[in-house]
Amino acid sequence: MAETLMFNALREATDEEMARDKTVFVLGEDVGHYGGSYKVTKDLYKKYGDLRLLDTPIAENSFCGMAVGAALTGLRPVIEGMNMGFLLLAFNQIANNAGMLRYTSGGNFKIPMVIRGPGGVGRQLGAEHSQRLEAYFHAVPGLKIVACSTAYNSKGLLKAAIRDDNPVLFFEHVLLYNLKDDLPDDEYVLPLDKAEMVRKGKDVTILTYSRMRHHCTQAVKEIEKQGYDPEIIDLISLKPFDMETISESIRKTHKVIIVEECMKTGGIAAELVALINEQLFDELDAPVLRLSSQDIPTPYNGKLESLTIVQPAQIAEAVQKMMEDRI
Amino acid sequence: MCAERTLPKFDTASAKITKEEGLILYEDMVLGRLFEDKCAEMYYRGKMFGFVHLYNGQEAVSSGIVKALRPKGDYVCSTYRDHVHALSAGVPAKEVMAELFGKETGCSKGRGGSMHMFSAEHGLLGGYAFVAEGIPVATGAAFQSKYRREAMGDPSSDSVAVCFFGDGASNNGQFFECLNMAALWKLPIIYVVENNKWAIGMAHDRATSQPEIYKKASVFNMAGYEVDGMDVLAVNTLAKEAVARARAGEGPTLIEALTYRFRGHSLADPDELRDPGEKEFWGKRDPIKKFAAYMTEKGLATATELKEIDQKITDLVEDAVKFAESSPEPNPSDLHRYIFAED
Questions:
Q1: Are residues A73 and A220 in the same domain?
Q2: Which residues belong to any copy of the Transketolase-like pyrimidine-binding domain (chain A) (predicted)?
Q3: Between the N and C ends of chain A, which has fewer C-beta atoms within 10 Å?
């Protein structure tokens, strides 16, 4: 076991997969000599060379399209979005070509590629660098969407994403790169489509992902003080959802709160609520509650920014309301 | 009406093609022409749907360029006007026709349609319907060729990618971004601008501050050439040089082929903006007639031989229609198939 920070866990995953498979290469802005904006690829170019750690010009749509072309012809590109928000500039290549091309081509081609990088709301980075993109990409057919949340799962999930034969959008969170875990010495790979049980409980199911997982666990002490026993599930896979794990929990607790960092309108929770209503309506003792970030551009001011996203106290309060049948 | 540019002169004596090569080029151009004529007929008879963009008039570009590639192992990337590029790349006419009919036997299994022809087997990376979006994809295929040789140590990796697009795409950022990267990394790719003077209703001169597109290569330190796109010999000769340079690791080439589409932008286009005089000027420069005359004058083929090819292709296109008509539609139970690699 070795204590490892998340950015190093991601680096280890990349290194191991590059050593294992020569078709794996990383491309993006400053991924080579600079080592990545969060040092996920630090010094890998010294080991693998400039072609396998390809520093690209600042041309997001074109280098994403290049990755699609490389994937169509048998390579396994891993794109680092220096900030995932920059990928809005590549929306066409990600949606039309990475996402849809296998279908449009009638199965002629597969597109094994990973698009990873820091997303989410950081600390006063301003609106453009504090995006909540997962919902923007959620409707695109053919994409898998994954959000890692710990050093441990980031490594196992990234390795799985690189081995997957489909385009995977892999969201890291800008504020989680310094989380630590003791990582196993032996290699491990985690399934991309399985939710993670964070805390077993019986009273209420809390569904969450990415950084909000940690806001949920921070709220646990307060919730326990209130006398309740919450079950916390980290969705991990935002598309497709692991409805098996989700429904097992709901069949036990009959109450659901979804805590997300993305915006409320058209968000991940919006989709989940609809699915839960469609599939598990009879199991519910109360309407599903959503705690989402505000439908506004992320403000720069620190106070306004913290009001924009969900805080632990709000989660504890929501649990109490739900348990006291006040919803 | 766009002013006509002075067409670059080509010395046919420098062409040096064999009879076999000449017949291949002729047959491929005839196939392109007769296939598209049949598409128009089938569209008006309600056999194919959606937007259908025909290639009539531009055949010398597709045949001249693609026939300079290897039959297997190289890559072709196209646009929404992709039927004839697919045919030149070797996709059987019956599979292209079946795709247009929306049938399971189509090269994209009826999921793609007119603007989305694909064939992994023939190195056809696809028809891309949004203008310029195929340019990065083709650039990625060229990167792959270099990567296999230099990063994976495979000395046999020398495939070349050809990327077709129109004058309209040459004003898009992806064009400039990819020219920069291809030149920077000396990628084995040939960018072929088919300048037919019109982006639907937007005359090239009205959209472009420097209408001579081939000159834009120079700012990327890339080789750039203009060529008479109605002269298959000129196109083919230039393409062979560009392919040789790419295969030798000497980098990309931008080719601007001056050409013209004999029909509207698509079969839904009333084609009201183009001047009749302009159409007549280019109509007289029909690349197939021009090349047929060359072949017979040089004694590379007799009129009878060429007629036999015309007949053979007429029959082949008829067979393609029969094949498409008699093919099954996709099975409704396969609606969700091909979303993911495992499907």
A1: no
A2: 4-179
A3: N
